[in-house]
Amino acid sequence: MRRLAAGVAAGVLAAVPAAASARPAASLDGGTVVFFSDTLLVVARDGATLRFADGTTGHADAACVDLKNDRVVLAGHARLAHAEKSAAADAIALELEGPRVDLLDASSGVTRTTRALGPTVPAELDAARFAFPDVADRNAFIRAKHAAITPHADVRFRPAAFPTSVGGLPVPSYLYTFATGAGFAATSLPGSDFDQPYGLWGSPTSLTALHARWEDGPGPAIGLQESFVSGDDAYATAAFDQPLRGYSTHGFDAYRRLGRRYTVSADVTGTIYGTLEHVGTTAAIGAFGGRADYSRTTAGASTFDASLHTPDEPLFAGATWRLKADAGFDAQRGGLLFPLPDAKRYPLVWRHGLDLSVATPVVRMPLKTTLAMTFDAARTWYAFPHRYDVLSASAIASRQLTRKLRLFGGYQESWSAQVYPGLQQLFYPVPTVPILTPDGTPYYGYAAYSGASVLRAVDLDAQYTPTSTSAVHLTVVHTDDFPQYRGFGRPQWQAGADVRVHPFPNFGIDVGRFYDFAWGGTRWVPRWSFAITP
Amino acid sequence: MTPALAAAAAAVFRIVPLACEGDRLAVSGGGVLRLAAGASCAAVVPGRALTIALDADGRVTPRPPDPQARPAAEIPRVAYVFAPAAAAQTDQTELVDATIDVVVPPRTPPTDDIYISTDRSGWSPSEVRMDRVDARHYRLGLRLHRGARVLFRVTRGSYGTIERDAAMALPPAHVLVAEPGADVTVVVANWADVD
Q1: Are residues B184 and B118 both part of a single domain?
Q2: Does residue B90 sit within a domain?
Q3: Which of A202, A257, A452, B86 is the most buried (most CB within 10 A)?
Q4: Same domain (yes/no): A243, A287
Q5: Residue B133's domain is classified under what CATH number?
Q6: Domain membership flag for residue B44
């Protein structure tokens, strides 16, 4: 029922674009219309026609719209008409939203009027207004015949072809959004290996987009997301995701900044297994930072956590320390401490904790190497004979072999222990039968697990950057954890390669191939990652 | 003939014409030049860059494309019938290398990659993976059209791991303006998911 409701909600949002879309302020037609995404320039050639929403029309041999500055230049045999009035010049400069119109006559100079084409008056030449960009059409991001422009929001191209994209198919319509509010980056869709949005409707404060996706596990999927954004200060998004083979999910995410010090947020994630709801707030209290979060699931679990942390304080020689204190509770309908015979007496358990972290600066070492380390110690006390301890450390060394080749080596270790004084055997009993891995091999080592675990990882990374816009990464990771066996925990060996190239000015590609070795009863498990970059 | 014209007389310039009528050639920025005797507007297409040669009298003749052409901003002022083109007019076909440097806080998960998210991709949170310089310093080179203005934010690959400011709020987008050697350094104060 919830899935149905979410689907209906997303469908209604998508089907009522009037609430989310703004009427274009202008449209531009030409024999060719090209768009440059990095400079936000739209250029029409071979006969350009500009139409404003107020009925003003312009014609010229060529036209350029500068979306960043809201300016238009009509070049060559330029004519402008509004109601019954008209004006002609060698070039005309005007604004997408403002009334000012500058007319350049190559034999007599510049005169100025308004969009209503009232009387003209002699004027000084404003060179910036008559700037027509020197651009090469072969580097355009999009080639079209028609562009509908909503200032500060988006431009829709019809039909849209992507001349610098290898194999890029032309589409009947493409909405390019250039609104800059931080919330336009927000998503309430689940994670994916690949996500290509396709804008349907937009305005300076909203966007409805379809998402072509590839998700780890289900594979191909279609997502639909509606976003409402208020600058960098607030947003709300709602999304629905349907894999072609798998179960749908839905999500909601909202954020609001309250003054200079506070933020509030709320999010909901729904899957076939239930719904997770979360609300949170952050606060800057002087140099200290605080946050509070509450979440609950439809399975009856909930958590609350409030924390306060110091800023990074100097220790010595550039090292810093930071202390965090937190308090909260964990709750579970039907009882939290299920190994206890009277677990129902403990539906909610309070806790509090301290976390001390120390970080060294990046230190220059011999042989052109650098080294940086972090250390962390945390203990959480529960309102039950129980505590949880974590000690962790990491070190990353780097060495520059040549100007284009760097090597990195990293080591991370984390020891943690769940301690139940007097009740350890109850919570971590010795298995009566050996744990079997997926290939049937018994894992006798599990008998030694009594609440203390260790995570260890060593990684080596080589990074080759032949040009400023291309790179090759080779990575090998070895983990040595406890408990760890085939099918439980992290793979013992992983290797991967990632290549980023930029064959065209407006088109880049990043392809990665990764392997998990000798894990889960298989020889190796390959994975791909793929991204298209502008 | 002025000394400026004498110095420029042997040179060719790359301009973007706005219009050509009679003996007048209006160029990007609004400046108007005079065509040389015998020169015509036949090869002039408004909006498409072309090369012009300047003679000793300050008159111009359209020429075939010349990669050695100098920018329009170097045309002597005295050659213009009306005001010259803007001095800042640049060749936007030129691709320039710009660099983004990012310094991350010590509590950044050590094995995470760092990404740049820009307005060019509709703010895809994993748009371009940065290259690592050392444990807490990342760098990315971008080849952009000169004058391009790129807005960007820093993430660890998803919107849930986007950068936050010192007050844990979403910061405004950073700005990179593509000029030769442009380098923007961003110090990430916090991550959305890390205290």
Answers
A1: yes
A2: no
A3: A202
A4: yes
A5: 2.60.40.10
A6: yes
Which chain A residues are closer than 8 Å to B47 by Cβ?
A: 43, 45, 61-64, 75-76, 132
Q: List all residues of chain B from 51 to 80 with a beta carbon under 8 Å from chain A.
A: none
Q: How many Cα atoms within 13 Å fall on the side-chain side of residue B163?
A: 23
A11 in the same domain as A57: no
- Chains A–B, number of C-beta pairs less than 8 Å apart: 263
- ∠ CA(A225), CA(A191), CA(A273), 5° rounding? 90
Choose one of B52, B79, B106: the last residue of a domain: B79
All residues at 6 or more sequence positions from B46 whose CB lies less than 8 Å from its CB, including other chains: A60, A61, A62, A75, A76, A77, A91, A132, B17, B18, B19, B20
Instruction: Indicate whether B136 and B100 sit together in one domain.
Output: yes
**pLDDT, tens only, A127-166:** 889 999 888 888 788 999 999 999 988 999 999 988 755 4
Q: Are A307 and A324 in contact (CB under 8 A)?
A: yes
Residue B176 sits in the same domain as residue B108: yes
Note the Cα A354 to chain centre separation in Å.
31
**CA atoms in the 13 A half-sphere facing the CB of B131:** 28
DSSP symbols for A50-101: EEETTS-EEEESEEEEETTTTEEEEEEEEEEEETTEEEEEEEEEEESSS-EE
Domain span including residue A280: 1-21+182-299
Chain A residues with beta carbon closer than 8 angstroms to that of B168: 263, 282-284, 289, 291
Can you give the pTM of this predicted structure? 0.82
Q: Report the domain count for chain B.
A: 2
ipTM: 0.83
Which chain A residues are Cβ-neighbours of B127 within 8 angstroms?
Answer: 531, 533-534
Q: Do A125 and B142 touch (CB under 8 A)?
A: no
Query: Average of pLDDT values for B46-54?
Result: 92
B150 touching chain A per CB within 8 A: yes
Sequence-distant (≥ 6) Cβ neighbours of residue B127 within 8 angstroms? A531, A533, A534, B115, B116, B117, B118, B120, B121
**Are residues B170 and B101 both part of a single domain?**
yes
Closest CA to A202 of A159, A173, A222: A173
Beta bridge partners of A127: none
Between chains, do B137 and A498 touch, taking CB under 8 Å as contact?
A: no
Chain B CB contacts of A234 below 8 Å: none
CATH number at residue B56: 2.40.50
- A31 and A147 part of one domain: yes
Whether residue A204 is contained in a domain is answered as yes
B98 beta partners: B142
CATH number of the domain enclosing A31: 2.60.450
Mark whether A192 and A144 lie in a shared domain.
no
Rounded percentage of chain A residues whose pLDDT exceeds 70? 91
> What is the residue-wise DSSP string for A202-271?
EETTEEEEEEEEEETTTEEEEEEEEEEEETTTEEEEEEEEEESSS--EEEEEEEEEETTTEEEEEEEEEE
Q: How big, in percent rounded to 5, are the helix, strand and coil portions of chain A?
A: 5, 60, 30
Structural domains in chain A (count): 2
Query: pLDDT for A279-300, tens place per residue?
Result: 999 999 988 999 999 999 999 9
Query: How far away is chain B from the Cα of A38, in angstroms, using its nearest Cα?
Result: 5
Structural domain span for residue B150: 95-191
pLDDT at A473: 94
Q: Is A421 helix (H, G, I), strand (E, B) or coil?
A: coil
Tokens describing residue A59:
């014609």
B 103-142 → A contacts, CB under 8 A: 105-107, 110-111, 117-129, 131-137, 141-142
Chain A hits for B173, Cβ within 8 Å: 180, 182, 232
